[in-house]
Amino acid sequence: MKQLKKYKKILNKTVKSIGDCTDHLYKEGWAEASSGNLSIDVSNSIPGKKIKNEQWLLITRSGCRFRETARRPWNDVLLIRTGSKKGIRIEYSGKKNARPTSELPTHKLIHDFYRKKKTRGTAVIHTHPTYIIALTHLKDYRQTDILNRLLVSIHPEIKAFIPEGVGFVPYLPPGSERIAVATQNAIEKHRVIIWEKHGCIAVADDLDRALDLIMIMEKAARIFFIARSAGFDLQELSQQQVDDLTNIKKR
After folding, report:
1. Largest CB tally within 10 Å, which of 92, 107, 121, 211?
2. Based on the structure, what is the number of domains in the chain?
3. CA 219, 29, 36 angle in degrees (round to 5)?
């Protein structure tokens, strides 16, 4: 196992961003116990010659608590290499005998997809937004088109930040190859994927932008439940009003 000092100088800023992100996820209540995981493609930051299709990923370890990761992020991340004939190699681990998150298959397939698009530096967050999960318990909103129509009608800012809309994956076992493949298929059209009764995945250039996408989506779901609990019928935007949002710009 290579020593931490070899990577700390070049990756310290990125690992700090992991600590900042996990702190936010924990404080929002989206990372209970050891739930949630994230990864960043740092291939472009690692010096030296690389083999074809090789990727270097920073990824959170299995069993870490984000409330602790926020304080000591280097303890809860692994630096792994993928794409070689030797399979997945751990180049750095903050804890002895640590393993990558159980959602590694999903993270790997997403990074593989973006590598083929010749896009590097991709950040992936998986977390458990409370109101989004609650929304997927309602049968009426378990279809991608209906779900997107609702979210945009409640919070038009979604059209600015997630113009392609969100993807939806019906319930599949967490950590399985099945949910990884279903997510990879959805990621071809969407940067944010909702997992029924489980949580969501968001992909962006960095963790801050991925977190933005989740926060905006969760805000819409929260407004939905606030209105419902107050006894109000939601007044959705008309189709014309939704169409008029096409040219809305990010603030």
Report:
1. 107
2. 1
3. 100
